[in-house]
Amino acid sequence: MRNLTDEKIKFLEEKARDIRVSIIEMLVSAGSGHSAGPLGMADVFTTLYFYILKHNPKDPFWEGRDRLILSNGHINPVLYATMAHAGYFPVKELLTLRKFGTRLQGHPHREYLPMLENSSGPLGSGLSQAVGMAIADRMDRGKTSDRFFYCLMSDGELDEGQSWEAILLAGKERLGKLIVILDRNNIQIDGYTEDVMPLEPLTHKFESFGWHVEEIDGHNFSAIVEAVGRAQAVFDGPSIVIARTIPGKGVSFMEGDYKWHGDPPGIKDMAGEPAKEEQVKIALHDLRTLGGQIKGEHE
Amino acid sequence: MINQSQKLNPKLFDKKVEEIPIRKGFGDGLVIAGEKNPQVVGLCSDLTVSTTMNLFRDKFPERFVEMGVAEQNMASVASGMAAMGKIPYISSYAMFSPGRNWEQIRTTICYNDRPVIIAGSHAGVSVGADGGTHQAIEDIALARVIPNMIVISPCDAIEARKATVAAAGLGKPTYIRLAREATPVITTDDTPFEVGKAQLYYGEEKEKTDVGIVATGALLYKALKVAETLKAENISAKVLNVATIKPIDVEALVSLAKTTGTIVTVEEHQIIGGLGGAVAEVLSQNFPVPIEFIGIQDKFGQSGRPEELLEHYGMGESHILKACKRVIERKS
């Protein structure tokens, strides 16, 4: 994969901004859903769908596509928003999130949106599915298959025992086509991950299970591309890109605050947060102006 | 008498009737399924010989994945393989799959509607000496409550072989229940088998009898012997083999209820949520008749010899016989 040009970085920045705005709009329309994770992973998803993935939004079932398996289904607003902006379905459909009859279920469900690779929600089982896909692909196409299997998962779901069963198996099977991108945002519902259930030293843990580890700033487009590029070059074992992200990235009052794990803005007053009537306005202003750095196009 | 059209084992009631573990039929069937379809793959969590998946492993080593003791991972890995076009069979003890990994089966296999076949061996108290932790007597309930799931409980090794081969072509999540112990061979290669269809093994379709016995799994053999005993006492009976518990054969059950007026269900499983529950659901809505239930009555198992345990938990021939007489009394 070639390194990013300045022009491409600017393009990705703008896409990520539009996707974040869509995330806030769809969550506000739904009146429930997770904010912090989707905003934090917007740069990773943007880079995947607009630069890294081999895919075709006009032919979502194309056999040769890379597979993106979302394990922590609760961040699906970022999946749906990125897919819509990439052309899989109309952006306006995003406002149906979590409503009766929608294709965009509260957690991903293939029965309603068959173009998804998997349904998910209960944590810790996405990696197993990605491992199964990579094993099946190797049976059919051998180690030189040109498909990659990207599993997007959260740090909190590493609390699940099943995650480690899958990590063991991927190491044993030396799945070179498997690349995990871990959302290392340090929060989960009950608090900070290192308080709830310490995970560090994560790099050492994965290395000792036979994984190649990359650790990056998950908001740096070049770093994402370069780390995934190096992971792709590792053919004799699975890779993990530990993407350090800021939960709620882009919205001043949400950034780094675990209280915003499971709520959209505008629903309730919280100690130390803007009044609920102000939250949506501030959030959209923050996003559209990149935190006041630029004059928002849509202001 | 035995329904001749079913072409059952002619030596069925001999003292030395041939006995084979039901799980062996799974192992044989998986090899046949693997020969027929190159997409068939096998996954096992450290019980490859016990579940007889070693037959497949030895024949198709490149299509077998050893999972280690990790049933939850196994279910979801199989789902991923099915997403890529494979037809995965996963095997363990029923207690661990679908017991331990129920949520993974629900979400990653059934909610995704992936054609994974779950073979749960060592079901029932007849596992024996290992004791209650290893005796799955809730697995039918666990499996049949999940949407999209097909549930098959074969009565002998031959039926298990046929069910295993047929499952590859269903394109749906499927649970096949297997037992450990050698049990009498009831059927033959020529006995009809169709997923979703119950078969009348004793009595004739149109014939009216005093009682109708509905059985699943290895206890079907005892049900057939009870029908013979009843005949000697001038009580007529029919015996229906319900191998597919979901989707259940409503037509066959209603027909049986109409021609007998009384039903006794027989299973080596909790009555709650098992065959008994399933039959009661169907008949109460379509053709209510008195029903007696033979099965585990809301208890856990324990160590012992299989026959001792079946007697202790009320699933012996004498219990089935008494249940038949009780239900006939309720009719009059």
TrEMBL record, chain A:
UniProt entry tagged with the keyword Ligase: no
SUPFAM superfamilies: Thiamin diphosphate-binding fold (THDP-binding)
Residue stretches in coiled coil: none
Domain Transketolase N-terminal: start-end pairs: 16-270
Keyword Mitochondrion: no
Names of the cofactor(s): thiamine diphosphate
Family matches, as CDD domains: TPP_TK
Domain of life according to the entry: Bacteria
Keywords: Thiamine pyrophosphate
InterPro entries, per the entry: THDP-binding, Transketolase_N
Family note: Belongs to the transketolase family.
Protein name: Transketolase
From TrEMBL, chain B:
SMART domains in the record: Transket_pyr
Organism listed in the record: Candidatus Zambryskibacteria bacterium RIFCSPLOWO2_12_FULL_39_23
Source organism superkingdom: Bacteria
Cofactor: thiamine diphosphate
Protein family per UniProt: Belongs to the transketolase family.
Positions of the Transketolase-like pyrimidine-binding domain: 20-185
Protein name: Transketolase
InterPro entries, sorted: PDH/Transketolase (IPR051157), THDP-binding (IPR029061), Transketo_C/PFOR_II (IPR009014), Transketolase-like_Pyr-bd (IPR005475), Transketolase_C (IPR033248)
Keywords: Thiamine pyrophosphate
Pfam family, one: Transket_pyr
